């Protein structure tokens, strides 16, 4: 695989070819990855997968018209043809007054922070198999487990590069290690399934395979004998496995494109009290080894730490350059490029700050409620904020967990839900969006 410097040179070369072919402006995104994964099931080797990919994407401008095209053929002749075709496409495209690059004066030139995203240790296939076997063995050893969907251990390496014709070029690499296990418990119609997984840039940051497997087994066994839930309005506790999805809905609603299209339930809510006073949601794209750490964004702007929500109020929209021009703002360093096409929007590592109460204290006064560990379906309306999703988890009776439940729906409106959020103290730091246990009062439960 190419080094970051070589990847940057590839992107620069394609930009030069596009300019020589007649593009008014151009940018190129290069990405490559390699990975190896081993899956075992019931103690036997199930699958060995090795993948390698390399792709380059070109975006060109002819005045205010633009087009994007990509290829996995990086030979000189193919790249020249790619540039010529992109320019022909751009000249036939409609004009877009908002499309274009980030302002040149905002481009970052480095030096960029050291993010420690590359693990020099590369596990051999035999080591990956041993990790998968250890995870599955631990999961199957839990009482009540009757079958297995398998366990997987994988490792990979990737590189990303961006170059523009108006003065930016940069690249960085990262590694990824992951372990997962999924098992089945019970018999007949009472069977249940659950899983556990972890991912990190460095293998040493993962829990042991046995710990991951044991967690998968315990989660599955805890669901055995699931009952039904009655309907009504009651408090809901969101386990950290699912609480991050609520913050994800917030992030989607404050992207510049959603605001510019007037398709966000947070439209005109900038600076208003959305959450309870004291709620903090922060972003840190420079966290060492963070899953979403990156030195620059998809337009060559510096990434930076910021508070997305401060004292319960949204502090600003997440803007790439096109949305900034449309809204009369300034790009915020949140542009994302995953291949061809115009930039999208993404964030760095996010966390919702922990509260003062433990999860047990958070539910201690709930006479009748639900503790959600699994969400099903996509029943969220980004325009109105209406929220309705299938769920599974546990009943809460008298302030304590009282047995597994499934096949019920939780519903509300995200604006009201945000206002009712109370955070527990159990914040962990191994996800891209790190959120503690959350309590939301007054949700509607639809069960039997």
TrEMBL record:
One GO CC annotation: cytosol
Domain Metalloprotease TldD/E central: 119-224
GO MF entries: metallopeptidase activity
Gene3D superfamilies per the UniProt record, alphabetical: PmbA/TldD superfamily
SUPFAM superfamilies: Putative modulator of DNA gyrase, PmbA/TldD (SSF111283)
Residue numbers spanned by region Disordered: 183-211
Residues of the Metalloprotease TldD/E N-terminal domain: 26-90
Biological processes annotated in GO: proteolysis
UniProt domain Metalloprotease TldD/E C-terminal: residue ranges: 231-447
Pfam families associated with the record: PmbA_TldD_1st, PmbA_TldD_2nd, PmbA_TldD_3rd
Protein family per UniProt: Belongs to the peptidase U62 family.
Name of the protein: Modulator protein
Source species: Novosphingobium barchaimii LL02
């Amino acid at each position: 695989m190419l080094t970051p410097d070589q990847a940057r040179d590839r992107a620069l070369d394609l930009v030069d070819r596009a300019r020589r072919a007649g593009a008014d402006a151009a940018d190129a995104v290069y990405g490559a990855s390699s990975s190896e994964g081993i899956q075992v099931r019931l103690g036997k080797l199930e699958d060995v997968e090795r993948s390698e990919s390399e792709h380059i994407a070109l975006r060109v401008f002819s005045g205010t018209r633009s087009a994007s095209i990509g290829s996995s053929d990086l030979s000189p002749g193919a790249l020249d043809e790619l540039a010529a075709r992109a320019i022909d496409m751009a000249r036939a495209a409609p004009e877009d007054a908002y499309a274009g690059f980030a302002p040149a004066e905002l481009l970052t030139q480095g030096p960029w922070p050291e993010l420690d995203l590359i693990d020099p240790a590369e596990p051999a296939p035999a080591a990956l198999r041993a990790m998968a076997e250890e995870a599955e063995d631990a999961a199957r050893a839990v009482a009540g487990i009757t079958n297995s969907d398998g366990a997987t251990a994988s490792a990979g390496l990737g590189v990303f590069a961006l170059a523009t014709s108006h003065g930016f070029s940069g690249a960085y690499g990262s590694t990824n290690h992951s372990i997962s296990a999924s098992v089945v418990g019970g018999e007949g119609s009472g069977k249940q399934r659950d899983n556990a997984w972890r991912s990190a840039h460095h293998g040493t940051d993962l829990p042991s395979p046995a710990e991951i497997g044991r967690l998968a087994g315990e989660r599955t066994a805890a669901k055995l004998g699931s009952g039904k839930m009655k309907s009504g309005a009651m408090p809901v506790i969101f386990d950290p496995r699912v609480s991050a999805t609520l913050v994800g809905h917030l992030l989607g609603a404050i992207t510049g494109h959603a605001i510019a299209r007037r398709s966000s339930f947070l439209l005109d809510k900038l600076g208003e009290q959305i959450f309870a006073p004291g709620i903090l949601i922060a972003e840190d794209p420079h966290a060492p080894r963070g899953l979403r750490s990156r030195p620059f964004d998809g337009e060559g702007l510096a990434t930076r730490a910021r508070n997305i929500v401060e004292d319960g109020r949204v502090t600003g929209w997440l803007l790439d350059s096109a949305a900034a021009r449309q809204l009369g703002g300034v790009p915020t360093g949140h542009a994302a490029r995953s291949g061809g096409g115009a930039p999208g929007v993404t964030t760095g590592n996010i966390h919702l700050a922990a509260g003062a109460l433990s999860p047990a204290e958070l539910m201690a006064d709930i006479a009748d409620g639900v503790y959600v560990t699994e969400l099903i379906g996509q029943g969220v309306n980004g325009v109105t904020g209406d929220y309705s999703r299938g769920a599974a988890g546990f009943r809460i009776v008298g302030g304590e967990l009282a047995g597994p439940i499934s096949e019920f729906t939780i519903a509300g409106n995200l604006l009201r839900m945000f206002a009712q959020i109370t955070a527990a103290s159990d914040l962990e730091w191994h996800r891209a969006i790190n959120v503690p246990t959350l309590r939301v009062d007054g949700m509607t439960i639809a069960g039997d």
